[in-house]
UniProtKB/TrEMBL annotation:
Domain of life: Eukaryota
Name under which the protein is recorded: Ubiquitin-related modifier 1
Cross-linked residues, Glycyl lysine isopeptide (Gly-Lys) (interchain with K-? in acceptor proteins): 99
Location of 1-thioglycine modifications: 99
Chief location category: cytoplasm
Keywords, sorted A to Z: Cytoplasm, Isopeptide bond, tRNA processing, Ubl conjugation pathway
Pathway: tRNA modification; 5-methoxycarbonylmethyl-2-thiouridine-tRNA biosynthesis
Organism: Botryobasidium botryosum (strain FD-172 SS1)
Length: 99
């Protein structure tokens, strides 16, 4: 098991799904190796307040959500396979907006 202190941030309207809070400082214990896939599941189970379909599509993150890991696009870090490290800063931003 891995215990990690992480900073999570939600923007672009996503904060409305998370008790209208943009920033969450969390300490979690996940099975090792702890990757973003496990974090997304933990977020959906423990932080997501409503409208799960606006965050997830099946077990994965919904398309249209930009993810930054330590200020780097998660596509450059391995997306859901990125191995979390203590102190990581992870940002989720919705790029889809109604009109």
């Amino acid at each position: 098991m891995a215990t990690l202190a992480l900073s999570l941030h939600f923007g672009g309207g996503m904060e409305l799904l998370f008790d209208n809070r943009r920033d969450h400082e969390i300490t979690i214990t996940l099975p090792a190796p702890a990757d973003v896939r496990l974090l997304i599941d933990w977020i959906a189970t423990n932080l997501l307040q409503e409208r799960k379909e606006l965050f997830l599509e099946g077990p994965s993150l919904r398309p249209g959500i930009l993810v930054l890991i330590n200020d780097t696009d998660w596509e450059l870090e391995g997306e859901e396979d990125y191995q979390l490290k203590d102190g990581d800063d992870i940002v989720f931003i919705s790029t889809l907006h109604g009109g």
